[in-house]
Write the structure tokens for this entry.
Amino acid sequence: MAKIAFILLCHKDPEAVIRQAEGLTKAGDYVAIHFDARSPAQAYAAIEAGLHDNPNVALVRKRIKCGWGEWSLVRATLATIETAIDAFPRATHLYMLSGDCRPIKSAEHARAMLDARDADYIESFDYFTSGWIKTGMKEERLIYRHYLNERTNKRAFYAMLAAQKALKLERHIPEGIDMMIGSQWWCLRRRTIERILAFCRKNRAVMRFFATTWIPDETFFQTLVRHLVPRAEIESRTLTFLMFTDYGMPATFYDDHYDLLLSQDFLFARKISPEADELKERLESLWTSGRTSFPIAGDGRRLFQFLTQRGRVGRRFAPRFWERESSLGRDRELIVLVCKKYHVAKRLAESLRQHQVIPALDYIFNEDDSPMPDLGGIETSLAKRHRHRRAMLRMLFRQMGTDRLAICLDPADFELLEEFYADRTTIRTLLVDCAYDEGYLRGHAQRIGLLGDQTPDATIERLMPTVAQDFVTEITRIREADLPDIHRLVEGTPEAEMATVLETVFGTDRDTAEALARTPHLFDD
């Protein structure tokens, strides 16, 4: 059976380090700890005293001063690996963790997973073709030498880089080495670690190369594992669940993320908030719970984005400056049908077309496949429609030969509605209020990727009130925005009252308004 030696690199909060190590060893596994030499000696002494009686914990005695993006992080990792290999001969796997990581499965589940597949778990993607690096330096990380820290010596760092470029001091990647890249949070078999240590002892030139690359903890182990281990024995993935925000920072998990974390197909999660005491306590108890059944939904990234940034789905932060300065036209009229139930607004739009009240388009800013005339390519994707939305609407007015146009819009797109009202054209909005039962709420959550087929019922029960409240909030925000010419059509209103609203909004005669109010199955699901 698998036994794990956790490689724990940390630099603060001795009490938290002690607690984490005690929790991980309760199930019979091991922990090797490197405590940053930049941290006070008394903090290290506190860890040493707190874990002195735990035979399953080993501390790296020769501490290293670590800096983000530096070779020092790899040096510290190698030192901790060597400590673990020497101290824990029964360890079958070594698992890289940080002080912000916590288990999201039980030890039994983790061991069963590692026993089921004789493989190394490490992201290992081609450095040059995978697109793993989204922004910033790429080739420059490798072909130039980096002796300074970009974060602490930014001016000198880039001055040295510029000098090497000017003097054409590029270097070659060591012969026979195919550069790989991936997350630094890996789980490797003991024999793989032993091969890596042997390689390091024999190949000093390769070590010197990596020692002057930038952010080597994303390339060193990822490259050597692919060089030393058959491809069939590598699972190119991490077993640690982590996400990044829109600003490129690691997403942080809090007390109310427990169910979300357990339903992900990972063994650990990073990073847990220091203030999330309840979450840490529950996850630490989970590790020794003996639980073996974990329904996997795999919907964590979408759920997290929804719960932390509700209301931003489908929105842009601001219009382009040329769109702000362009007008749809003073003599034109745009009527916006705002409804969360797309099929309801589409039925009303179809009724408008059938009764020749006004040209009406479906959710052209929300659905890729909404029927549209040829506009020279702007209409081909949602991204292009949003990028050129005012230009697209002006073209629609011209292409359809009309000065009056109706479109459907999701109420979540409040900024888009505000942008329309900032135009010099005449804008009128019809809010279509619908009733939402639990079946519809679940269906909506599944359609936008919040729920998967295996999402636990506990997660669904906690999420549904949030989804329902979002619907209410979206409509309320529009109603309270003091925008002119806002009208409401409420499900369940008598047909005569509905006809009055429709007559006002679309400027039709009474008979036509009554015909619109009698649109077959208008509010039916």
